[in-house]
Every structure is written in C-alpha cells, then in structure tokens.
Amino acid sequence: MLQFPAWKVILISLTLLTGTLMALPNAFSNAFLGIEPLRPEAPTAQQLADYNAEMAAAQDSWWPGMLPSGKVNLGLDLRGGVYLLMEIDEDDVVANRLNLMLSDVADTLYGQGVRDKVYGSGEVEGEQLIFTLNRNRMDETSMDKALDRIRDLNTPVDGALGGQRTYEVRQRGEAQIAIALTEAAKSSFVRDAQTDTLQTVRMRIDPEGVRDINPVPQGENRVILEVPGEPDPSRIKELLSQAGNLTFSMVDDTPSTIRDTLATGRAPVGWRLLSDAETGERMLVNNVAVVNGEDVATASQGFDPDDNSPAVNFRLTGVGQKRFSDVTQNNYGKRFAIVLDEQVMSAPRINEPIYGGQVQITGNFTMQEALDLAAIIEAGELPAKLNFMEERTVGPGLGADSIRAGTRASIIGLALVAVFMIATYGRLGFFAVLSLVANIVLILGALSGLGATLTLPGIAGIILTIGMAVDANVLVFERIREEKAAGRTPITSVQAGYERALSTILDANITTFIAAAVLYMLGSGPVKGFAVTLAIGIVTSVFTAFVVTRWITASWLRWARPKTLAI
C-alpha cells in the first residue's frame, strides 16, 4: 500500500503537472495569453480604443503556443448577462402542421381530378383542418373517395412501422372532412420543434459560433437560454420574437388594382396587401414566393454602395439562384418584394436580369439592426412562436461581487481547514493541506480543459469538495491513530490506516457521485453547474486524498524513518 514504483511516481507527477498547466491560464489576462479579443459590434470610440489596445497586447504576447490557454467559462451569475425561459407555442406548432397538411391534401385531390367534381375549400379551425366539399357536385361515392385519398397520406408517427397514425380523419356532416393531429403526433411535433428551436436560437444569437451561449431544452416544450455578457435583454427578445419567414414575391403595381384594393380593403385572390417597413407604402404582393428562406445560403451585414449606410447582404443557393434569375429575366420593369414576417423590407425594381444570387437589402438600418437582421435571415424560420415565461438580467458588477465572495469563502474555508488539520494531526495534517491545494488546482484544470461553465452554485460545489477531501483524510488519520494505539510501528500504522479506510472512502464518494450524476441529468442551469463541479471534485478529492497524500507520507517515512508517529 505504501510502495510507489517509478511508473506510479511518474504518472502522479504528470497528472499534477497537467492539472497545473491547465489551471495556470486562469491567473492571467487574455491579452497576456495571446488570445485576440472579439471586435465589438457597433463599437463606441472607447470600446474601439480598448479593443485595439487588447489586440496589440495579444499580438505581443510571449505565451508559448504549445501551452494551454483556455480558461474556466464563467456562468451567467458570475459574468453577468441575460437569462430567458421560453415556451414553444404548441397551438402554433399544430397550426403549422395543419397548414402543411392543407397543401398536401389539396395537391392530392387536384392530382386525382377531384377538384372539378367535389373539391370546395379547406381552412384551419382551431386544432382541426376542415375540408368542405361541393354539395352540388357530390355523388354517393364522392365522400368515401375523398376520405380514402386523404387517409393514404396518413403516415405513422416518427415513421415507425405499425405505430400510431399522425392524423385522425373523419367525416363531419354531409359534406365536410375534419382532420386533427393525434396526441402522439402532437408530442412528436413539439419535440421536433424544440430541437429545431435550439439550433435556430443558437444561430440567431451567435451566428459566428464564437460566444459562450447555452440554449438547453427543459421538458418537452421549453428552452432555457443564457447569454453571458449580454447587457440588453430586449435585443435578445426582439431577435427571437420574429418568426424569420423570408420570401421573395412579385409586386402588382397596376394603379387601378391598387386603387380598388385600398378602397375595399380586400386583396384579389392569390395576393395580399402588405406595408413597406421603411416608407409605409401599401403594396400588393403575390402569395406565391419566387424563393424563400430555405434558398438563402449565407447572410451578413454589409454597406450600401451608394451612401455607405448599413445593409444586409445575402447569397442564394444554386436552386434559388436559378429561380431568381429566371424571374428577373421574365419580369423586366416590375418590382419584387423581399418580405420578412409579413413586412416588406425592400421592393426594388427589376432593371436587368440578376444572376449569381447576390442580393442586398438596404434601408434606414443601424449597424446593430443590420447585424441582427442578417442573423435572423441566415438562421432561418422558427418552427413555432416562442412565449417568454421568465426573464432575468445579471449585471457584470453583481457577477464580479459573486466571484469575490466565492473566492473569499474558498480561501477562508481552506485556511480554517488547514489550521484544524495541522493542529489536530501535525505533520500528516500538513501533508493533507498540500494535497488539498492540489485538489483545487486539479478542479480548475479539469473545468478549463473540459470547457465547463463555472456558476455560483459551482463555487459552492468546490467548497463542498474541500470538506469532502478533508473528510477522507480524517478517516485515514483516525485509522492510523487506532493502529498506533494498538502498538504498531509508524510504517505499519500508516499502511493499515490506508488499507482499512479505503472501502469507507470509496463507498461515501461513489454514492455522492451517483447523486451528482442524477442532478446533472434531471437538473438544469445552476443545478447542472453544481453537479459538474461536485462530480469533478469527487474524482480529484479521492485522487489527492488517497493517492497524493499517501505518496507524500510514504516518501517522508522512507526519508525520515521516524521512531514514533506524532498524530
């Protein structure tokens, strides 16, 4: 138990050295480590000056590239920022799916030639899709044929063979067909919407993938979003309030048609009346989109070549480019509208065919508005409306106070433990304090290396592991005392103490590790942060208490060969 061959010593030393190197960057600034800062969006003069100073310092850094430079990620409560709890509107999910079904059913009936005979109209009413057939053209078999053709579209939920069907199709009255989602289908579509929402939210808030944001699911229909360092929750909510439905559609500029539509307030069939977001101009826009958001490959903030004002540039995919170029070739002199969520963002006139799929939206944008609009366009449409259930904002000053308070508590706790251990167990207590310091270093190194996020409850988890590590040492030292009182020599007392305390230490730490795993799987936000640091602390505390302290003690026993053991 006290034998440490060369390979064990090397392994222990490498573990401690690696942990120290991983934790070391937390003691220095980013500029010292050579980490280039992110350029602030729409910076003020002072922010730009600070950015240039940090960039110059980072470029002059002598920190070796072979050494780790990653730091512990600070959570929302330590760094400040925005916390949002959002709920996916299940009614919106159902309505969207029924609208898709409306298109599928209409295509099926048209394709089977039913349109000329009995097809009337279809519309979504609440959680049902109602199709009304033409009574004057119905015969005895019309309803059965229509039901059969619609039921042929009814696939199993999630594509599982023999599973529950997606839709319930039934006759309502003499000439109507009602279609509703099954409960299994609702749950499946909401889960799919949650998954899609996580991706879309991340792309909207962090289109470049460089910010430490953390959208996570909660339950089946909620999403938690934490944006550390973000001072403006209203901007985040604005980004996520827009559905992001982008379409390119032709505009009808015929004066008589516009005049009649404005007079009656009713648009012709196949058209809708929309307003220009900048000028307020009312215009008729075709319901059939030339291209839509799915045809956008990339979007970015740019500048209008005429007056250098902020604009949004985006590039279409190959399919979108082909359709767009065909439309611009065949509609010379007409206008097309770029519509985002039923607002006309721009309505340029086609003066020449547009090839290459490069499009620009200009307007009275600020730099931030252009950046946000580009993020919305590139991220794509949200699968359903988001309802904001809870909002919290943590200022950076409060986060800094939390760091200071947590650091102070850790230092005080470590100091008190050190005094107690040395006063109670003498030299062995001092060895335990050394391993305790190594334990804290290893925890910081593990958090840095894994890219985990440290929260205020996480600091509480670190403080708790300090006590747990001491507890393991206390168990060993009390066993050593018992063996010494029984008349054993110092070496045999220490060996027996570690052997007999091992099972108790493992039992206590394994059960605590299981509890941490359950907290991580079932918890969210700060609870997960606590679980992560607790789990890491359990592993490192067992290593330092039972391996490092034992190694130091065994080395001292071999070197000093004491006749008695003062404990």
The biggest beta sheet reads: 6 strands, antiparallel
Give the rounded overall mean pLDDT: 81
Gyration radius (Cα, Å) is: 33 Å
Secondary structure category: alpha+beta
Just give the CATH class of one domain. Mainly Alpha
The share of residues in helices is 40-55%
Q: What gross morphology would you assign?
A: elongated
Distance between the termini: 20 Å
Poorly predicted segments: 112-118
**In what range is the share of β-strand residues?**
15-25%
The tally of helices reads: 14
CATH superfamily of one domain: Multidrug efflux transporter AcrB transmembrane domain
CATH T-level topology of one domain: Multidrug efflux transporter AcrB transmembrane fold
CATH architecture annotation of one domain:
Up-down Bundle
Tell me the total number of β-strands: 19
